[in-house]
UniProtKB/TrEMBL annotation:
Protein's name in the database: Hydroxyethylthiazole kinase
Sequence positions that bind ATP: 117, 163
Top-level taxon in the UniProt lineage: Bacteria
Gene name in the database record: thiM
Catalysed reaction, written as an equation: 5-(2-hydroxyethyl)-4-methylthiazole + ATP = 4-methyl-5-(2-phosphooxyethyl)-thiazole + ADP + H(+)
GO biological process: thiamine biosynthetic process; thiamine diphosphate biosynthetic process
Amino acid sequence: MQLSLLTQLRQQNPVVLNISNFVTVQDVANGLNAIGASPIMSEEVAEAEALVQMSGAVALNLGAFTQQQLTQIRQTGKLANQYHKPLIVDPVAIGAVAYRRTIATQLLQDFQVDIIRGNAGEIAALADVTWQAKGIDAGAGDGDLVAIAQAAAQKQHCVVILSGPTDVITDGQRVVQIQNGTPLFQLHVGSGDMLSSIVAAFAAVSAGDYFTAAQTACLVFASAGERVAAQLSQERPGTFAAQLIDELHLITTEAVAQIARYTVGKDE
Ligand SMILES: Nc1ncnc2c1ncn2[C@@H]1O[C@H](COP(=O)(O)OP(=O)(O)O)[C@@H](O)[C@H]1O
Ligand SMILES: Cc1ncsc1CCOP(=O)(O)O
Ligand SMILES: [Mg+2]
């Protein structure tokens, strides 16, 4: 864990290129902006090379792609590899939709991803583990989440974040588990997408240590949500979403350190 990465992120204000889905694009842009990164979104393959070159990291969200956008996604992923930019993929709903799973599998062969961030249903699909994913949500299953995340990381040769009540972060061998968070995240569509792009922002300032970038991003994001939830007397999804943006902007490394609850290793 390296909370100083949050300070570096705010000092460096890295450009993060996002291919977003149309549902959560604004959450992602504002979440990145609030925490101290500089978001840019694009839907045009003709500008992909210029945008990748100027970016500190690239986040590809597979939430609602069309055939046309697939060309852009594939090209942007390849360019990120070519220009050695950290590449993050969010494989939205690949556990629930066979078509998405097929496409994601192909894409992950077309370029080498550095970090994959998904919920249990999505990461189980990558690891070929049976799971009852439900739409964009994690769904239900009884597999060992740490073993599933490790299997996915080993298969894709990258860092994997399996997010949920506990976030599991692994490079296939090493494991960190973060217990911070709030169930209110699940009441706001876009929480996961925001996290994936914030992971990209941390990766941009991590000098290639993607395992540390991934766990620090997860801890900061989950802590921000937890601090907001602690101030709410009722479940208020709208208020939570607005205040999450505020908190991403205001949260300090000291505040995160004060509430951080995580374990290093496989046992919680
Ligand atoms: N029940 C929960 N308790 C605490 N934190 C949660 C819970 N569910 C999700 N989170 C947090 O919500 C954020 C988004 O993760 P997740 O809900 O798994 O993504 P997605 O929206 O893609 O399904 C993460 O920071 C995760 O830690
Ligand atoms: C509802 C929906 N449909 C396609 S993408 C998307 C948003 C998914 O957002 P998240 O995974 O962050 O909840
Ligand atoms: Mg998601």
